[in-house]
Specification:
The structure is a homodimer of 478-residue chains. Chain A has 478 residues and is α+β, with helices and mostly antiparallel strands. Chain A has helices at 2-6, 16-26, 43-62, 76-79, 83-89, 115-125, 170-192, 237-242, 266-275, 303-318, 332-341, 352-357, 378-402, 411-420, 433-443; strands spanning 30-32, 39-41, 66-67, 73-75, 94-99, 102-110, 134-143, 157-167, 197-200, 212-219, 225-235, 246-247, 253-254, 257-264, 292-296, 323-325, 346-350, 359-364, 370-374, 405-407, 424-429, 446-451, 470-475. In chain A, helix 10 links the parallel strand 15 and strand 16. Chain A starts with a helix and ends with a strand.
């Protein structure tokens, strides 16, 4: 019965790209806006972002960050101050040339990121070592004029948070950038049920103006990597450029050390791709706007069924479960496929036969597993079951990721992995740019991440045969 | 001692405009951005907005509204669809003419408000009476190219929420717009300690495209009114223009009824002006990022003082009080004026003499009142005291508002009130445009609000002498 409803979306394994777009639209996460390249974040999509915000905002504040809001428009002269930075962003900018019916004397840029605004503000508020550290975060949208767009993954506008901090020392700044990276990693584990590879970016993949870029990388079902969040140690480049200086205890004027960091609604793209299946979206309970749906069976002929559903619904609400009782007159079959499409983690069915036996039937969205539990214990069991689902989904994704990291010590192995297998090619590298160019030309693969805590497992770079000590993960990437 | 520190701000009664800007800057709520007409919302300013958001978001959701996010850029063709609407907004628009290094084929507008984006989306999602009501809200910023700007009160960009809903009937839509108005009014009472006059706008002051505009109006210390939030019943104009139709039970295609509603960071301007004094900002506890500051006296010579401060700080935190212990080596005098400037509702001092007596000294920011309370009961008493302060501040503002509403039945009274008194001129009106023009020309006053629940108190309009039944409040306004 459910099959008929989901014929509208294609199979995930047949055509991941089409499946992905189908799910985004049919699960009502977004729709295309009249503004070309822009999307409408619909309630079921936006609420996923609200859960991400709620988790991160608390974690950031616990690390001492406070929220601020900077202008949405940046004068070009300000954007142009930091040369490396502007090179990275200028080609993607949207330009405001008129305001209030007049040509502007200076063109403005719709913010693509706000380092230069923060820097210009920091120079006014930082004077002494006492003023450090400064830890600011901003929730906003940014605009980048992308040629090809995909919902959540790449768009002309996305929602994000951008953190900007100043620190006394290089070491403190780096440590802070790393502590935020761990928060992002925890978000994956605790909320999104997505495991990441944590590490730093090779020089060629660093953020414009960064001395170090740290990253969390996820693996998509087609074996391509998706960069899901980055934190940057920006050194003293912005402070030097914007003349942000503090008087130190030794009476010397010094430059503070800058970090910036962000995750965006791209995370929703990862969420959809990592967990979704041929029936549609699959949501981990922690991020699901509705965690459990109750569907009455033969309700029209049984007042007891209706009553039992309402009683359970209230009992679950009291336990803090986000629950929906759908007692509309649509058929159970329609409801099954509708809520499967919407990715609701747990379906609860109650029918006359169940009631006779004093049980209810559960269906776990991600595994397809069915269970019967005693009705009287339901409100007690279900919150724990939602935790179990959260952990089960994380474990499933974790196993997938770690079974798709292939250590390669020879060129043939590299070739084999990147042409026939899905996943990360783990290899030793000298980090030379010829290697990167070769990998790009032959396999369309880029160096994704120099992972933390990976031990040397061979002596030479499989491309050049040169001796080296560094492990790197290559993959094709979004 | 404190006096010296606050010499930096001018007296509120001497020059309200200068005082206001001084407080915004010195209390570190905002600073001017390099982008002309735009401001930086600093942490202590932005956190006030976060409290407003947190309160309203819960209330909106309780009324069934869900959050969405629409593009920040609007194609001009879409903005131009509704004629009344575009007339209202076109002169204030910022235009994007280039993107990704190329001239755009169609100019985009940085959103000044999003009715047309919502309408364009609604036409895709509303088909049947079953799809109604639709209740959406969006938290975002908007850009309006204002010539003269003042922090929070009027700026090229402000933060706001904009709600957009569709309803089956006119009556349901109007009732919904009114229920949101009551939420705004509650925000004033529960959070901001600002009383409003609630009512509807006369035709001349309605939102572009609205059939009815409802408003909350506050009174500033200079006797000028400040419109603090509006909700609109927009009729079926947008649905007709964008072809949003639903199939009703009777098999007829019909247009749904539209409401929109918003409050903005302008509320922070009202908060500053209504409560602030010559020492700086004064915050109601409910909205204050720090509700109470503990200042140790002679801490350097008394380990007991330091210990008592820490103990109290933890005890208050456990009670959910947002408390700051400032045990820095700055002088108590510096701290007193600093936290007075910042508007912290309650100051707690603990010194060796207090400890001997087993008491602590409290200073209530808004009233200047000093109290001593037993140290051992502090954690119990202080949360209640914060509630008392919240209510006291509301009452003070309420009394001010209601003692500045002057009923006028003759032209001389109108003239007297609007030229010598501060406040609202309450009068009967025919609502004719000649009256409005006269009031504007002679007194720079505009019709602010037709208040709910006001009884007819005279038979004639004091300007024209014509018979009429409607009460109206006139005032000069921001």
């Amino acid at each position: 019965m459910a099959d008929k409803k989901v014929k509208f979306i294609c199979s995930k394994s047949d055509d991941l790209a089409k499946w992905y777009t189908d799910v985004c639209l049919k699960a009502e996460l977004m729709s295309y806006a009249k503004t070309k390249g822009f999307i409408v974040y619909r309630p079921d999509g936006y609420s996923l972002w609200e859960e991400v915000q709620s988790y991160l905002d608390k974690r950031f504040k616990a690390l001492g960050a406070r929220n601020v809001y900077m202008p949405t428009l940046i004068p070009t002269s300000l954007l142009n101050k930091e040369k490396d930075f502007v090179k990275g962003f200028a080609p993607e900018c949207a330009l405001v040339t008129q305001g209030g019916g007049k040509d502007l004397t200076e063109t403005m840029v719709v913010r693509p990121t706000s380092e230069c605004l923060f820097s210009d503000h920091f120079k006014d508020i930082v004077h002494s070592y006492n003023d450090l550290p400064v830890k600011y975060n901003q929730w906003c949208s940014v605009v980048r004029w992308e040629k090809t767009t995909r919902p959540f993954l790449r768009g002309a506008e996305f929602l994000w948070q951008e953190g900007h901090t100043l620190h006394y020392s290089k070491e403190e700044a780096k440590q802070f950038a790393l502590s935020i990276l761990r928060v992002y990693n925890d978000l994956g584990k605790d909320v999104l049920a997505i495991p990441f590879v944590m590490g730093r970016k090779p020089d060629s993949e660093k953020f414009a103006g960064a001395e170090e870029t740290y990253t969390i990388e996820a693996l998509m079902p087609d074996g391509q990597a998706l960069q899901c969040g980055t934190t940057h140690y920006l050194g003293t480049g912005f402070p030097e450029c914007f003349n942000i200086r503090f008087l130190d205890k030794d009476n010397q004027l010094k430059y503070p050390h800058y970090t910036s960091w962000g995750v965006s609604t791209r995370l929703l793209g990862a969420l959809i791709m990592v967990h979704g299946d041929d029936e549609g979206l699959v949501l981990p309970p922690r991020v699901a706007p509705i965690q459990s749906v109750i569907i009455p069976i033969r309700m029209e002929t049984s007042a007891e069924v209706r009553q039992a559903c309402h009683t359970l619904c209230h009992a679950l609400e009291e336990k803090g479960v986000r629950v929906l009782l759908d007692d509309s007159d649509k058929t159970p079959g329609w409801k099954f496929s509708q809520y499967e499409m919407k990715g609701i983690p747990l379906r609860i069915e109650i029918g006359p036969k169940d009631l006779e036996k004093g049980v209810l039937s559960l269906s776990i969205r991600y595994s397809g597993e069915k269970r019967q539990i005693p009705l009287e214990r339901a409100a007690e069991v279900i919150p724990d079951l939602l935790d179990e689902i959260q952990q089960g989904m994380y474990k499933k994704a974790y196993d997938y990721l770690h079974s798709h990291i292939y250590p390669c010590t020879t060129y043939e192995e590299v070739k084999d992995v990147l042409s026939s297998h899905k996943g990360f090619c783990k290899m030793m590298t000298t980090g030379e740019s010829e290697d990167e160019e070769k990998m790009k030309a032959e396999f369309s693969a880029t160096p994704r991440v120099i992972p933390f805590d990976e031990k040397k497992f061979a002596d030479t770079d499989p491309l050049s045969g040169k001796e080296c000590d560094q492990v790197i993960y290559y993959a094709r990437a979004y």
